[in-house]
Design goal:
Blueprint (H helix, E strand, L loop, with lengths): L11 E8 L7 E8 L3 H9 L6 H8 E4 L7 H10 L3 H19 L1
Antiparallel strand pairs: 1-2, 2-3
Helix pairs in contact: 2-3, 2-4
Organism: Azotobacter chroococcum
InterPro entries: Phage_TAC_4
Protein name: Tail assembly chaperone
Amino acid sequence: MAVKFKLVPAPTFKAKVSIPVHGGEAVQVEFEFKHRTRDEMAKWLEGSSGRSDVDSLLDVLAGWELDDPFGKGSVELLVQNYCGAAPAIVARYVDELIQARRGN
């Protein structure tokens, strides 16, 4: 069945992110991201320079498929233990929103 197109998208969407793991291969983890409009995204990007990795992730994520509960403490652990995670997650978020715009 074809997906019905809506002018107002769902408030969240899911996408898999390849998280770099030291000493091994990257692992695919599914994250739930918060949708932003074009204007909201531009404003978010403007304020990103002084934002910590943890704050950036809390701004864009609504959840994840990990066994650990989603929250500030768990996001801090992720950022501390996997240095490449935050850049990979934010890049995927931006890519997903841009792809969504290209398709519309």
